[in-house]
Amino acid sequence: MKKALLSGNEAIARGAYEAGIQVATGYPGTPSSEILETVAREYGKEIYAEWSTNEKVAMDAAAGAAYSGRRSMVTTKQVGMNVLADALMYTVYTGIEAGLIVVTADDPGMFSSQNEQDNRWYARLAKLPLLEPADSQEAKDFVVQGISLSEKFDTPVLLRTTMRVSHSKGVVTLGERAAVPDEIGPFVRNQEKYVCTAMWAKKRHPVVEQRLLELAQHAESSPFNRIEWGERSLGIITSGITYTYAREVFPDASILKLGMSFPLPVRLINSFAEQVEKVLVIEELDPFLEEQIKAMGIEVVGKGVFPPCDELLPDKIYSIAVDAGFLDKKKDAKPAVPPPETLPPRSPVLCPGCPHRSTFYLLHKMKVPVAGDIGCYNLGCLPPFNAQHTMGCMGASIGVLHGMAIAQLPEKGAATIGDSTFFHSGMPALANMVHNQSHGVVILMDNGTTAMTGHQDHPGTTWSLHGKDVPHIEFKPLLHAMGAKKVVEVNAFDVAEVEKGLKECLDYDGPSVLITKGLCVFISRNPQPPYVVDTDSCVACGECFKLGCPAIVKSNEHNPKTGKAKASIDPTLCVGCDVCRQVCPTGAIHPPIGVERSEA
Amino acid sequence: MNKIDFLVAGVGGQGTILASDILAEVGMEAGYDAKKSDVLGLAVRGGSVLSHVRWGRTVASPVSRKGTIDYLLGFEPLEALRGTEFLHPQSTALVNTQPIPPVSVSSGDAIYPAKERLEQILHAVTANVYFVEATEEAIGLGSSKVTNVVMIGAFSALLDVPVEVWEKVILSRVPEKYSQLNKAAFFAGRELIQGARIS
C-alpha cells in the first residue's frame, strides 16, 4: 500500500479526498490554513475548495452543500470557531443529507493566536460528536470515519486538532476515494427538518438529545476508543496529541485512548477505572474529560497536578508525574543543560519593504490612540512603533474605535485593519459607525492579500483558490456605498502622502477611511536594488531606526559629537522600498548610483 | 532498529522546514517509522524555527525530550545554541558558521555571542561538533538558497543511509529546474564534512 509523509493538515485534506468530500470551505488561520491549500493543490479536480469571507459564511456554505447532497468540510482555527458557532448550532438541529465535518485546529501554547481556548467545549455546547486524532494517520482516517458517523447519525461531526497534530508530519498509509454522486437534486424540501423556526425547531431538540444518547452508546464499542493494557497500577485516560506524549513518558502504563471524546463511553471508562489502581487524566488546556469522568463518580487526578495553560509536552508531563509520585525518576536521567546565558531574542518583525511600515512610523510620531486588529500589522504594537494599543479579535478594531468615540474620548482615534480582515468582519462595524454617526479614522491597510496566514485570496483580490481573473471588489466605491463620506486613498510607500491623508482624516468630523494601498512584498515579488547609506552625510540622528526595518542596521561608525551609531543597510535584506530615504533628514540614504529600478 | 532523534534549528526563510521534511522522508525511505514537528507561526517573518525529527521502529510523540537529541543541525549559530538543552554528551552537532543577526542585535539592544563563546557553549555539552561554511559554499555554487541542501549533504556523511536514498528524496522535493543545483549542493556538502571536525 502506498505511504506518504504527511502533516496532520495534509492528512485531513487527503482524508477529505478519500471520504468522498466534494465541497471544502474555510477562512485562513494558523494552524489550520494548510488543509484547504492542500485540498486545492492536490485534489482540486475532485473537491471544490474556497476561502470564504469568514468562518460563518464558510459554515453556512458547507451546510448548504451538505443539504444539497454533497459531502462537505469546513476548516477553521480555534478562534474562528467563535465566528462559525452560530451556524454550527443550527446544523446540529437540522442534520444533513450528506456528511458534514467541521475541523477546528486549536493552538495550545498560542504560537499564533490571541487566546488558548479549548474548542472541545463546542461539542458539548452544540451537542455533536467530537473526534480527536493523535497523529497524521488518524487525522486522515478520522475524516473518512467521521463522514460515515455524520451520515449514520444525521449530524455534523467536529474534528479537533491542535497545532502539534496539524503541523507535525508522520507516515500515512493512503487509501482510495469513495464513490461520490455526479448528479444531485432536486433539493430536499423538508421544512420541518431544515427550517429552524421555533415550532419546528422545538420538535428537533428532542431528536438532538436522543441522537446524543445513541452516539454515547456507539462510543462504547467504537474503534475510535481503545485500551492499551500495561501494568494495572496506573491507568491513564487521554486523547489527541497528548496520547503520544503519555505513551512515551509512561511506556508501561495502561492507557485508555479516546479518539471520540464526546459523548463519552461511560461503561468503557468505568470498566477501565475498575481494573487499574489509580487513574490519571492527561489533557492539554481545560479539564474537559476530567470533569465529565468525575461526574461519573470516578476518582481521578488531572488538573490537580497538570496546569490548564500552555502545551503539555513530554518533558512537562514527565517532571510533573515524578513530582506527584506517579512515576519514579529515571536513574540514568541527566538534567538537560540550558544555554548558559540569555541569548538575543529573534522576534518577528515587519518584512523589509512592508507597506505597513510608513503608517506605523507616522502613528507613532503623531501619538494617535490606535485600536488594532488581527494580521501582520499587529506587529505595529511592538517597538519601535508601539502604535497599536488594543487588539482582541478579527474585526474588533473598528468597533473599539467607535466605542472610544461614543465614550467621548477627547483624543481623535484610529483603527488599523487589513483588507481581508475588513471583509471578514470589519464591514458591519463600519456600517455601524456611519449609521450611528461617530468619528475616528479607519485605516484600511490594503496589501492585496491575507498576508499573515500565508497570502491567501479574499474578495478584494483578482484571484481565488480555484481560479484566476475573478471579479473583485474595489474598496473606494464599496466604502462610498456604505455611506462613508470621507475616503482618502494613498500610496503606502509615499510617507508624505500617508501623512497628509492621515491628518486630513483626523481633522474630519465624522467617520473617515484612509486606504493605505501597497502590495505585500510576497505578492509584488519585485525587489529593487538595495539602498545605501552615505556615511559622511549620516549624522546618526536615528530617524531611520524608527522604521524598525530589519535591513537598517547600526554601523561601526559613530557621530563623534553624540557617540551614536550611524546607519547602514544590509544589502541582502533591503528590497529598495524607498521609505527610509524619505524619512532621512540629511539625504544620506539613496538608491545605488547607476542601477536602474526594475518594473514589476 | 535504533531510534535516532534530530533537531533542526534555524531562521525563517533559511529552508529549514524543507530540510527537516527531507530528513524525515529519508528516514521513512530507509525503513524507519518517522515523525517530525515544526513550530511555524510567524516563521516566514524571520523568527526562530525549530523542527524535531524522529526515526525509530515506532515513534509516538513527534516532539523529543530535553537531553535526548542525537543530532543537532544548526543552520545559524545563535539558533543552534537555543537547541543545546536537547543534547546529551554523546550528541553530534553540525553547525553552519554564517550568523544572521536578529533585529534585537542590529538595532543595538543585544549583543550577538562571539564565535569563541559560541563554540565554548556547544563544546560544554558535547565534544562532537562540526562547523561548516555552508552558506559560503552555497553562494559559491550560485545561490545562498541552497544552503539547506549543502547542510543536508554535509549531514548525510554522518549517517549510515545509502546516498541514493538522500538523492532520491531531495530531487523529489525541489523544483525540477533546480535539480542540478541542488544535486551539486548536496555533494558539495558531503565533501565539506571532511576535515570540518573541531575537537
Structure description:
By secondary structure, chain A is α/β, with parallel strands linked by helices. Chain A has 4 domains: 3-219, Thiamin diphosphate (ThDP)-binding fold, Pyr/PP domains (Rossmann fold, 3-Layer(aba) Sandwich), CATH 3.40.50; 225-323, Rossmann fold, CATH 3.40.50.920; 357-524, Thiamin diphosphate (ThDP)-binding fold, Pyr/PP domains (Rossmann fold); 532-590, Alpha-Beta Plaits. In chain A, 35% of the residues lie in helices and 19% in strands. Chain A has 20 helices and 24 strands. In chain A, strands 3-2-4-5-7-6-12 form a 7-stranded mixed β-sheet, sandwiched between helices. A 5-stranded parallel β-sheet of chain A has the order 14-15-16-20-19, sandwiched between helices. A 4-stranded mixed β-sheet of chain A has the order 9-11-10-13, with helices on both faces. Chain A is globular. The mean pLDDT of chain A is 96. Chain B is an alpha/beta fold. Chain B has one domain: Pyruvate-ferredoxin Oxidoreductase, domain 3 (3-Layer(aba) Sandwich). Chain B has helices at 16-29, 77-82, 103-106, 115-125, 134-141, 147-156, 163-173, 179-192; strands spanning 4-11, 33-38, 48-56, 69-74, 87-96, 128-132, 197-198. Chain B has a 7-stranded mixed β-sheet with strand order 2-3-1-4-5-6-7, with helices on both faces. In chain B, α2 (77-82) links the parallel β4 (69-74) and β5 (87-96). The relative contact order of chain B is 0.16. At the A-B interface, β8, α10, α13 and β22 of A face α1, β2, α2, β5 and α3 of B. β8 (168-173) of chain A pairs antiparallel with β2 (33-38) of chain B, so a sheet runs across the interface.
